[in-house]
Specification:
Length: 620
């Protein structure tokens, strides 16, 4: 059922003031008991042949024009608004499925939230609840009385509403309106303990769900009903569930083609059939087959790949190995997704480059220039600044707030589905850091190019000796020196493939020097091993106060939530490498390499931690 939302004031169809009326002062209703019989007749007439509750509002406006004497505008507005409220159900799969009358609380202009109704309007509702006769009208007014506690005996109001909702079945309301009325009736019966009526409502829901399945009605009629009646309301006083529900759920698994609907039904079956492995297996298989069928029907490669990946992951989640194999094989042979790149051009002021390169152009020696490069700030920028940018971007992007993002790996297969509030914010954090990294990559590469232009291609031995003078382990110093030399001869891919693995080795060396427990001991047949880079960075941040700006850069540049350079290099997907990426990899490598000491070198723990917490990783 639709949620109640504020509606455009200019729309005559929903009963708000016309453009002429909207310029006047807001209408204030004063209750007149003498008009109740006239209003009740008007409401009953408006309910005749109405297919939705909101259609009653439209009918009321049209019928009111023929009254003589005319109906007070304020009274007309209150009646129109009364039928503007909606029934909203909990999402499919909730632990306690129910339906409520909304909006209960503001802000809402039309219809006004129920709790914001004044005493005059409430008096109108109380009187009309006893005067109207049409089931739709009786259901609406009795439900309002129950919701707002406008009667001393709420149980009586609930019973009146329940019976009215039952009487709407088979009438002019659309099937989904009748269905949500029954959901609301079930909620009311359970809330006040009307067990006999609860069973009567549940039986009507079973009949309606069965009819919807037989007539191939839309899934939003049958599925919410099955979801609600498949759940026992109380643990201690469980009502028997009609055994027909299981048969209807099995029918529903085969009746609908849409994968998202079959998933909802399968979730209901899995929840209800706990312990019945055969039924759960059949439900999971039906869900996977629906996903495979969606892939068959997909006209675009991206859609096919998405559904095949969903089928494979669903099969793996529920242990349906034979269908997982089918989905994976089809995924691997699926058509290649044709990616389109959206480019945005912007100009970087030349002053940024000129100012940045001043130290490198004025350095007296290459050692001095290289020292400037080793002391440059984190390419990803400041963490607090990125956080502010991320929150601002998230607030202004409607798509970001509602969309689900599927991330693809370099092999063209879906890698991760990203959704939710925190995922959205984290994605914006990565984007903010990435924007800084893009610019910093150009600057770092320009600085290295300037060093080469001024001092030529430096010898491996000289650069290695320069780096080793900081106390760095000779093995790591030689690797960094070689990676720098490869950059200067334009072998960018070779430079990156040499530098990136040494980042993890250096981080591990630092933690071992600090005697932090990082090694995972052997258990059973599993070999003992060191954890991956992500876990090492966690340790550096948690135990060693690693500079958060640099930790952010290493994560975004190297790990899966960002550029994922570490895994691309490790798995052979980093074929084409530009100078910017190579410069960033070298900067990441240089950061941790200069902190990893030669084993014979004597350094106390405090000096190492001070270096880690510094803005550029430089030892004092």
């Amino acid at each position: 059922m639709e949620d109640a939302e504020p509606i455009n004031e200019d729309s005559d169809l929903t009963g708000e003031p016309s453009s002429e009326e909207s310029t006047q002062e807001p209408l204030t209703y004063t209750h007149d008991p003498g008009l109740v019989s006239v209003l009740a007749q008007l409401v009953d007439s408006a309910c005749e042949d109405a297919d939705t509750f909101r259609a009653v509002s439209i009918n009321l406006r049209q019928l009111a024009t023929s009254l003589n004497p005319p109906l007070p505008s304020a009274a007309e507005r209150e009646l129109v608004m009364t039928f503007g409220y909606s029934l909203r159900s909990t999402p499919i799969g909730s632990s306690r499925p129910d339906a409520s009358l909304v909006p209960l609380d503001g802000p809402s202009y039309f219809p006004r939230s129920l709790n914001d109704a004044d005493d005059q309007t409430r008096a109108l509702w109380v009187d009309l609840a006893s005067a109207v006769t049409h089931p739709v009208a009786r259901a609406r007014f009795a439900d309002i009385l129950f919701t707002l506690k406008l009667t001393e005996n709420r149980r009586d109001a609930a019973e009146r509403a329940i019976r009215a909702y039952l009487d709407t079945v088979g009438g002019s309301l659309q099937d989904h309106e009748q269905g949500f009325g029954l959901l609301r009736a079930l909620t009311l019966a359970r809330s006040v303990g009307l067990s006999d009526l609860e069973q009567q409502v549940a039986s009507a829901m079973v009949d309606m769900a069965e009819g919807a399945l037989l007539e191939s009605n839309p899934a939003y009629v049958a599925v919410p009903l099955l979801d609600a009646i498949a759940v026992s309301p109380r643990k201690n006083k469980t009502q028997p569930i009609n055994p027909k529900v299981d048969d209807l759920l099995d029918t529903a698994l085969q009746a609908y083609a849409e994968a998202h609907v079959v998933k909802e039904v399968a979730d209901i079956v899995r929840r209800r059939a706990a312990g019945d492995d055969a039924r759960i297996q059949r439900a999971s298989e039906a869900q996977i087959h629906a996903l495979l069928k969606e892939a068959d029907n997909g006209r675009e490669a991206l859609i096919k790949v998405y559904y095949l990946n969903e089928a494979a992951s669903t099969a793996r989640r529920y242990g349906v190995s034979h269908l997982e194999e089918v989905a994976v094989l089809r995924l691997q042979s699926a058509p290649q997704v044709e990616w389109k790149t959206l480019q945005t051009e912007f100009s970087i002021p030349s002053e940024i480059f000129r100012n940045y390169l001043i130290p490198y152009e004025r350095a007296q020696t290459w050692q001095e220039a290289l020292a400037y490069w080793f002391q440059s700030d984190s390419p990803s920028g400041s963490v607090p600044n990125n956080e502010e940018t991320a929150r601002n971007l998230k607030e202004v992007s409607v798509v970001e707030q509602i969309a689900t993002t599927v991330k693809f790996g370099p092999e063209g297969f879906p890698k991760r589905v990203v959704s939710g509030e925190e995922d959205s914010l984290q994605r914006q954090r990565v984007r903010a850091a990435s924007a800084n990294i893009q610019l910093s990559g150009l600057l770092l590469a320009s600085a290295l190019d300037t060093i080469r232009a001024r001092f030529g291609i430096l010898s491996l031995e000289d650069v290695e000796a320069c780096i080793s003078d900081s106390g760095t382990h000779p093995f790591l110093a030689k690797a960094l020196a070689k990676a720098l030399q490869l950059y200067w001869v334009d072998e960018f891919a070779a430079s990156v493939h040499l530098a990136v693995p040494k980042i993890e080795a250096s981080a591990r060396s630092i933690l071992l020097e600090l005697n932090e427990p990082v090694y995972r001991a052997a258990v059973g047949d599993a070999d003992g091993q060191f954890p991956g880079l992500g876990s090492l960075l966690d340790k550096l941040e948690e135990k060693c106060d690693f500079d958060p700006d640099w930790a952010c850069f290493l994560r975004v540049f190297l790990l899966k939530d960002g550029y994922n350079v570490r895994n691309l290099v490790a798995h052979g997907f980093m074929d084409e490498v530009d100078r910017k990426t190579a410069a960033l990899a070298l900067r990441a490598c240089a950061l941790v390499v200069v902190l990893a000491s030669n084993e014979p070198a004597e350094r106390d723990i405090k000096s190492v931690k001070d270096a880690l917490a510094g803005s550029n990783g430089e030892e004092s």
